[in-house]
Structures are given as C-alpha cells and as structure tokens.
Design a protein that fits this description.
With 115 residues, chain A is mostly helical. Helices cover 73% and strands 0% of the residues of chain A. Chain A is built from five helices and no strands. The radius of gyration of chain B is 18 Å and the shape is globular. The model of chain B has no long low-confidence stretch (mean pLDDT 88).
C-alpha cells in the first residue's frame, strides 16, 4: 500500500470505461436505410428489366458501403445483401437473354408482339 | 436525442431526392420513352410461368394516382403501403420544417422496412399459389 502511494499509481483509481461502447447509437443511419430501399427496388424491378437490377444494385451497394463505414447495423447488411441479389438477378437475366434471346424473340413474335 | 433527430433529417433529405428522381422519370417516360420503348409482356411471367415479386406494381401506381386505393392494394399491396409511409413521413416533416410546429414529424422505425419485406414475400407467395395451385391468373 505504501508503494502505491509513492508511485502515484493512478490506474487503480480510474473507473472502468464501460460506457463508451453503449454510447453508440443503435439506430441505422440514413444511408443504410436508403441502401435497403434501393436494394429492394433492385430485386423487384430487376425481374422486369435487367438493367434496373444492374443500376439499382450498384447504387445500393455504394450506399450500403458508405453507410456501413460509420457503424454496423442489421439494416446496412440487409441493404448490401439485397443490392447484391438485385445485381445478380440483373446479370442472370442478361446471361439468359444472351443464351435464349433469339428463341424468345421468335416466341414473342408468334404471340403477336412486333419489334 | 440529437442523434435521433439527425436520422429523421437525413431521411427527409433522401426522401426529397427520391421524389425528384421519381418526377424526372415520370416526365421523361411520358414525353419521350413511351413512344420509343417496345410494348412487351412480362418476360418473367411468360418464360418462367410465375409472377415476379413486383407483379402489378406499375398498375398499382397507376391506380393510386387515379384515386383507386383498393384497386392499388389488390394489384400490389406494397405500393399503397409505401405511399402511406412515405407520404406521412415526408408531409409531417415538411409541415414541421415549414413552421407548423404543432405537427410532429414521424419518427423512423425499423419495422417500416421489415413490414415492407413481409408484404412483398406474402404477396409473391399468395399470388403464385393461386396461379400454380388453382390456375387463377391476375
């Protein structure tokens, strides 16, 4: 005990810093929410037109990455996942169109649609 | 408290951007795009035999803008739901910002998004069940 007083050891008197972690906001920030919305749109619209999936998917990924820089949240992760799925959908559609495009166009023309 | 206010402000600004983009797309479509792009059926439905998760979305938006809320709900329930949440949020915050302090801006809740995903999933499963199980087309 004498040694502690002589050395002016301050570590024993410093309170445990537990509050720092809890101060972090548990809410997602605006960019993460926007990335989820754009990601959902990328999936929903990507089924309709491949380029929606591509463009919205890329926008969603950028928003998610920017939003996640400040702190992780479930919504940020979900936004990233949805945007990647939307992007993948767009890419799959383009590949399918490249493979089956000619046959599909013929089938549509037989159904009565002109191009 | 300060951090929570920042989130709603961010979302309001992002909401304004969405509104602007939406208006640009509608104007662009009605003026130029409509006469240029092909009329074609839904490729997803034609070639895969099931409805896509967004089936009926365009019809729902059209119905909503013509005042047919119930029709919009039937075509795709996500559209009137999103319109209500977006409209309520943006209008309440706009009124508050414009000075009508009696109107409190809506708070953002995570369940807004979880319910949206749930609606998409349930609508997708239900409509395809009707199509595949009972042959009922929309």
């Amino acid at each position: 005990m004498d040694e502690q007083n002589n050395y002016q050891d301050n570590t024993a008197y410093v309170p445990y810093q537990t509050t720092v972690v809890e101060e972090r906001s548990n809410k997602a920030n605006g960019l993460q929410i926007a990335s989820l919305v754009v990601g959902i749109c990328a999936i929903v619209l990507g089924c309709c037109w491949a380029y929606f999936g591509l463009i919205l998917g890329i926008i969603g990924i950028v928003l998610a990455v920017l939003g996640n820089k400040n702190g992780k949240h479930g919504i940020g992760t979900a936004g990233l996942v949805c945007s990647i799925v939307g992007l993948a959908l767009g890419v799959i559609w383009i590949i399918l169109a490249a493979i089956f495009g000619a046959a599909a166009m013929q089938m549509l023309q037989e159904m009565g649609y002109s191009f | 408290m300060k951090k929570e206010k920042e989130l709603e402000d961010q979302l309001f600004d992002i909401g304004l951007v969405f509104l602007f983009v939406f208006i640009v797309i509608v104007v662009f479509y009605k003026s130029i795009l409509k006469s240029v792009i092909y009329v074609r059926p839904c490729l997803f439905s034609t070639f895969l035999g099931i409805y896509c998760p967004g089936c009926g979305g365009t019809r729902a938006i059209d119905a909503l803008f013509h005042g047919h809320f119930i029709k919009a709900l039937w075509y795709h329930p996500l559209v009137p739901y999103a319109a209500m949440i977006y409209g309520g949020f943006m209008i309440s915050h706009a009124l508050n910002r414009l000075g009508i302090k009696k109107v409190k801006g809506w708070k953002f809740h995570n369940w807004y998004l979880y319910v949206a995903v749930g609606i998409i999933a349930v609508n997708f499963i239900l409509k395809n069940l009707l199509r595949i199980g009972f042959g009922i087309m929309m």
